[in-house]
Sequence to fold (877 residues):
Amino acid sequence: MWKFTFLKGIWEQEDIINNILVESDTNYEGGITINSFNILIGGEAGQGLKTVSHILGKALYRMGFNVFTSRDFMSRIRGGHNFDKVRFGSEDIIGPADEVDIIVALNEETVVRHRDELKEDGVIITEKKDAGGENVVEIPAGKIAGEINPKGINTVYLGALIKILGLDRNECEKVIAEFFEDEGIVDDNYRLLEQGYHEVEERYEVAAPGNNEKRIYLDGKDAIGLGAMAAGVKFYTAYPMSPSTGIMNYLAGKQRDGGPVVEQAESEIGAINMALGAAYGGVRAMTGTSGGGFALMAEGMGLAGITETPLVVAEIQRPGPATGLPTRTEQGDLQFVINVSQGEFPLVVLAPRDQEDAFYQTFRAFNLAEKYQLPVVILGDQFLVDSSRSVEEFDFESLEIERHLLSPAEQEGEYKRYEITADGISPRAYSGQLPGQTVLVDSDEHDEAGHITESAEVRKAMVDKRMKKMDRLREEDLQEPEYTGREDADYLLAGWGSTRGPLLEAQKLLTAEGISAGVLSFADVWPLPRQELESRTEGVVKFITVENNATGQFANLVRQETGIKADNEILKYDGSPFSGKEITRRVKEVITQ
Amino acid sequence: MSRQEVTVSKETAWCPGCGNFPLRKALAGALNELELSPDKVAMFTGIGQAAKMPHYLNVNGFNGLHGRSLPPAIGMRMANHNIKVIVESGDGCTYGEGGNHILHNIRRNPDLTHLVHDNQIYGLTKGQASPTTGEEMRTPIQTEGINAAPLNPIKFAVGMGASFAARGFVGEMDHLQELIKEALNHRGYALIDILQPCVSFNKINTYQWYKERVFHLEEDGHDPSDYDEAFRRAREWGERIPIGIFYREEKEIFRDRFSRLGDTPLVEEATSPGAARELIDDFR
Fold:
């Protein structure tokens, strides 16, 4: 029997038979310790995978573990093959892992598809006895559930899993009680959990680290929603589109808790124009979509640009073009978002690097949008919004809402919405704010008062005024990427947005193999901060970009903005996110070329 | 402080004799009669000659995108219901490019006044067919006549359950001004489809053409609270064209459906990041 115990902050693997303690390498090539345990729960759509992974993830988090849960599911309501991965351990878990310690197979297909990912000493929990291998733990989940509640097969497996891990099922019961509203269903799930628990034997002895008071466990969509709430968003309107819809779900549920009014628009075109009207009316407004919907919003982005109306748009990428892979992940919209809409106008694109960053960047987006009177895009992806992670509790004390509105007392004479100023930022008042004054905005080129014009002189002055806002933004508000690694690292890996976690894990793995690599992780992608890029690429053996697309859009952007050409581009566009191990393997491939 | 008057500008980009002039006069007259001051009125328009209206009246203005005059007006109503909202644009912008928005905003029943300058032609792009152009018309594009049946905006609006549906005619300015006043006083979505000639590009539907056909519904004994009768009258178009209020009904407006919204406009609500802090407990 293999036994995992939690000891002195690291996982150790104990061979009971030989009574020898060996350090767990969790099967990473080269014997590197990433102190985590990885569980894959697979089955059909409709079997309650999301429910069971949520309950498991939250219970583990409450036991004091750090948890990372990622989701891979098909665009359908029933059937197909979906799986969630729950990775947990004592250290900060920042991304998914490839190899799996335990497979919880709610159907046969899960075993067939994922058996190769199972570690040598891993365990498969399934109903089918002939799944193969001595590591199969059989459980008659269907029969048990049939006697209690046929919909609750997932909870039977959860009970078995908890027992196999040697964990207390108490925390799962608490989450179940919170999760289900109906008391009868809660009772059913208690019984299902208990039956599953008693059906199997302990395999591991995983000791829970204790409490997790200073941490919270949430996914990227809720982090974006909460960031918007903290920023005082008053109106959110969107058209449902995976994987962005979760933001609207979260905010709609908070309307009575001081959240925004939420309206499902008739289309993405309706959504962005409605949000702009609300912003013109003086409130913080937001919309959200994925690439396809953003394509419909393109003209509205230009409208925000020329009318200088503050707007925050969440663009949560999925693989395109057109309908693409609706529920999978990709970073294929970077250049599209930066270059959205006809004509030239300033905008800001922020790509949150993880669930914690998603909260702070969303908050920041609202301040930037109002300070510079322009659209700010939160460029996320399915991997960011559908993955849950335990992160440090958000620091609300550090947040300050800055609205940059003209105060009526400051206004002398006739108000001009587009008054030419030294930094290009005109005093902003909203419609109805200044007694006796009106606010006029126009999608046509306009003069200082907002009136339509075709004067060449005014046109040039207005373009200059709008573009000039970027100068101040570059000086005062642009955030350089985060650098992790030794100052004299041989290799520089650069990524943007949600690749941060896998990149940092790769950096650890590479270091342990004697490969010195540093990681530059970008959240501000437009305008692109240049200082770190210019200094960190100096003298490295290789500069390698890592991104979830087929054409190296970020590498192209870096070259366009700095003239620096990546020596290698590590690209992935199969709809799934990188793991740290995959990046490690591919870095090793390119550096030996 | 005495109330500011709604005034009109001298310069416009409209053709001499354009129906937009009497329409603007009727609108300014209605706003002044109702004592609505310019800073408490916001006008949302799309693109086209009609959509230039906010440049020629001294009210708040949002001259947005082609077809998109309605959505920002809804956003404005959400932000601040103390501002009177007027949506204005032409027949192409409203019923063509903006068709989806009018469909769904009739369902929403937001409290706003929607004035559609219906000259049955595209003016600014020089004479192509609009959704309301008669089938007999030939244009440089529709060289053999219009290949789709014209939209009847009143039939559409009444059929969709609009809470106020009316037709006006710029050749009867006093009547139009009264209609606009009724629409501004209506609590809910009020559509006025306003017949107006395009002196440059529509040689069929002239002042004379309309004058020979229009008659007043109210003088014809029409009861605007009778839905079935409204629908029957809405179908009248041709030798006789009814103008006036086809249908009017008080019903729940859009913002009534949000328990989140109270008397204080969203724009006046105080906000601090700390207000969201306790929501963090959901994630423990």
